[in-house]
Amino acid sequence: MESTMTANSTAMDDEAIAAIRIVERAEERYRTRVLRLAEDTDRMFGWLMLGQWAFAMLIALVLSPPAFSGKGGNLSLPLAFGFGGLLASLPVYLAFRQPGRPLTRHVIAAAQMLWSALLIHLTGGRIETHFHVFGSLAFLAFYRDWRVLLTATLVVATEHFLRGIFWPESVYGIVNPEWWRFLEHAFWVLFCDAFLVWSCVRGLQSIRELVEHGAQMEALAQSAWTQIAAFEGVKPSAVAAAARG
Amino acid sequence: MEVCGLFRAWMRTLALSLWIVAVSTSVAWTWHYKTTPGRPSAPPHAWPTSANVRHSGTTLLVALHPLCTCSEATISELARLMASVHDQPTPTVYALIYDYHPRTSIEESSLWRRAAAIPGVIAMRDADGEMARSFGAETSGDVIAYSADGVLLFHGGLTAARGHEGDSFGRQRLLAVLRGNTPDRRDSPVFGCNMNELAKGST
Which of A135, A170, B72, B148 is 20 to 30 A from residue B56's alpha carbon, by CA? Predict the structure, then answer.
């Protein structure tokens, strides 16, 4: 009787240990996959920053010569080169030297939204260039981290808020806008954010489900190999090797 | 080891702070530059009899310099304005393109082509900006409107910032004038390049 209880207790302990191992393995793989996703996305943005810098200079040379000409000079190119280079500098450094860190993606998010502002300036405020804002938000959702979208939105809202206070006509077309007008612009960003945040959360859930499922399958296979090994009287590793072919 | 870690963290914070300050300063400088208006025009209150432009009905004069892309934004806004008043009696619109005597003819500039392509707009060559000057316009993008009986109706720019398309109260006021309404003001700041200084730079 006592020996049966001891055997049952040992079996339950084994099951609990196996369950803990499944959870630990799943958690480790989840972290690894999310980190790799962040690192890959950081590098993608690193290249994008460099591409945008080249594109900004191309616009300054081709589309808007000599925009911003105050006294016969062309300020577009210095602006694209200087401001663009400054904007790209820290994100590119962090993307290639410290990929995967939370700070890297938040700096990238802030810089990406300011790239929209710079490109809008360089193209003379063209309506079409405003699509860059929403495209950038979609790119930032690649991180599957909703906090990155929050940083991006705060940068857009702050830029509009400050411009609304100091240079109201440039953003609203009128001199004395209501103080809340920046919220109207931010609304469309938030509208886009709402769906992107949902997709980020869903994306992370999918990754977690995938790694948990994989860990369970591995545990099941390992258990089967152990049972076969006990039956055949060989080591479980030999059964596993035979199963792999 | 710990000191090294602290030093790195400190350097990281310093680099981040410097980057934020530099980027914020650049953004602020850009917006300050873009929203600093040019010298306001001082057009005569009545159509000058000595003008080399024919006055015909409500007449608009738009002073533009091809070397200033603020002019491109003005042309875009002028096109929108003309589309908005297509159901009104069409005003006579002269785009006075500053001829700074480039190697190729001014008629071949993109600014000329864009201005001439707007229905109802007549592109005119303005040698050394003489015509614009006779109407008191110094800044590229300045628009001066006279009524059918030669009274000054409006003067100012159509853009909200240098080389920046989009809504502006200058366009709203001019639109009100052309529709026969009374605007809150009959002027607006002109965001553009000083044509005389451009001329000095291009010679």
Answer: B72
